[in-house]
Design goal:
This protein is of the alpha+beta class. Helix content is about 30%, strand content about 25%.
């Protein structure tokens, strides 16, 4: 594929949208569990002339995720396993059924296969969601992964780690996200302590944790590789380096996601690995968000989700990458031939430096107010495209211990790195002044500095 400049991207999308305006009638597609950044998908499909119906996989919405926006859909259904949902969708003759976020992957696979539309199929659905089966499947294909054990017995995990020399090791739920329930354990006591914490909690997706996934610790730098595919031909939308901080309790938290040049040797190795891994797990259609670590032996898979990135922000990605995975996903399902002609097996361009900053906090208590003047000052910084305030007055603030408890996300991009860095340093210096919090008791620091 030839390189696409920003002007060529704009020219292409103008043609795609013009074609949508000349279509007669409105076809329908289906999004399953379009929480969080899945909310960007309806507008992307609308621009290509497609209405969307939402299917919620669980009887109750997932409270710990940003809700799906009902006004973006022509209808909303709650999945019923008695077959009635499938029959209702069949009458709509949908063009596609895709997951809007992680909890919808299995059901989207099931419905898309049953309705005979573009699909990744159900044969490997479990391996695309269950982290143990995911790693087992990828390792069996000869790709580098962590060693692992699945168990509900802390003592079995300790014996495994000691006999195999897997210190430190990682303990986490089988199916979650955003570093929820993830512990880095450097000794037997830390591993034992992680088990009750995981087994007595629920996942981000309201699931019950009945077993713990224990893995060898992959030493190295962690990255994101985002892709959108049609028939196994993946376009790489971006490679981002994770900058993380480790809390004193052994839990890692995100700090910054930093855009990497596609010609960087690390990016080249990551992209090659990701293409092979997508083929193994048969993520041949639609978006994927892959997390990997470059160890001393090369890239190794942490996990992959067959859905868009949790930090997706179309305007931000358009500015630094020339396009975004929401629009690319819509094009892949509505006009696959045009997608293949423009993006088949391609790789993004880094148009300018970019960072996503997930600000931590040490504050604990009830949010009393938001410093609107400071928020506007942050918004006015030259590299700030947008920011997301995750707390409002009367919300409870807790010290950051995972991505979900970061109270602020900021998207920064500019033609020069110095501007991005200066704005990041400013925001980092004032982050604790954004919210006024009334403590419930003594302040808890959890080791964030």
């Amino acid at each position: 594929m030839s390189e696409l400049t920003a002007d060529k991207h704009i020219e292409q999308w103008n043609r795609f949208e013009e074609a949508a305006r000349t279509d007669t009638g409105r076809a329908v597609g289906v999004l399953v569990d379009a929480y969080g950044t899945g909310n960007y998908l309806p507008a992307a499909f609308d621009r290509l002339g497609i209405d969307v119906v939402h299917v919620q996989s669980s009887p109750e919405p997932i409270a710990r995720m940003q809700p799906w926006n009902r006004s973006s859909y022509v209808d909303g259904l709650v999945y019923n396993p008695d077959g009635s949902t499938g029959l209702a969708l069949k009458e709509l003759e949908p063009r596609f059924v895709i997951p809007g976020q992680e909890p919808g992957v299995r059901l989207a696979d099931q419905l898309s296969e049953a309705l005979g539309v573009r699909t990744n199929g159900t044969e490997l659905s479990e391996a695309r969601r269950n982290k143990f089966k995911m790693i087992e499947t990828v390792a069996a294909a000869g790709l580098r992964t962590a060693a692992q054990l699945i168990t509900d017995d802390a003592e079995e995990a300790v014996v495994w780690a000691e006999e195999s020399g897997h210190w430190p090791c990682v303990a986490k739920p089988l199916s979650s996200a955003s570093t929820d329930g993830v512990f880095i354990c450097r000794d037997a006591d830390a591993l034992r302590a992680a088990f009750p914490s995981i087994l007595t909690s629920t996942t981000v997706f309201n699931g019950t944790n009945t077993e713990v996934l224990v893995q060898s610790f992959l030493e190295g730098t962690e990255y994101i590789v985002d892709t959108v595919s049609v028939d196994g031909h993946a376009y790489v939308c971006g490679v981002w380096q994770y900058e993380k901080r480790l809390l004193s309790n052994g839990k890692p938290i995100y700090n910054r996601d930093i855009l990497v040049s596609p010609t960087d040797p690390a990016a080249v190795a990551l992209i090659d690995y990701t293409r092979a891994m997508l083929d193994v797990l048969r993520i041949h259609n639609g978006p994927a968000h892959t997390e990997l670590i470059i160890t001393q032996d090369g890239p190794a898979l942490v996990e992959v989700g067959a859905r868009v990135n949790g930090h997706l922000h179309p305007a931000f990605h358009d500015a630094c990458l020339g396009t975004n995975s929401a629009d690319l996903t819509a094009l892949a399902y509505v006009r696959p031939e045009q997608f293949l002609a423009a993006y088949r097996d391609g790789v993004y361009q880094k148009l300018q430096p970019a960072v996503v900053y997930n600000a931590p906090t040490v504050l604990a208590g009830e949010v009393v107010s938001v410093n609107d003047e400071l928020v506007e000052e942050i918004r006015s910084r030259p590299s700030v495209v947008d920011l997301t305030l995750k707390r409002r007055p009367r919300d409870v603030m807790v010290p950051t211990h995972d991505l979900l408890t970061s109270p602020l996300r900021v998207f920064l991009t500019a033609p020069d790195q110095a501007t991005v860095d200066a704005d990041y340093r400013f925001i980092e210096s004032v982050r604790e002044a954004i919210y006024e919090v009334q403590p419930f008791g003594p302040r808890v620091t959890c080791g964030v500095v």
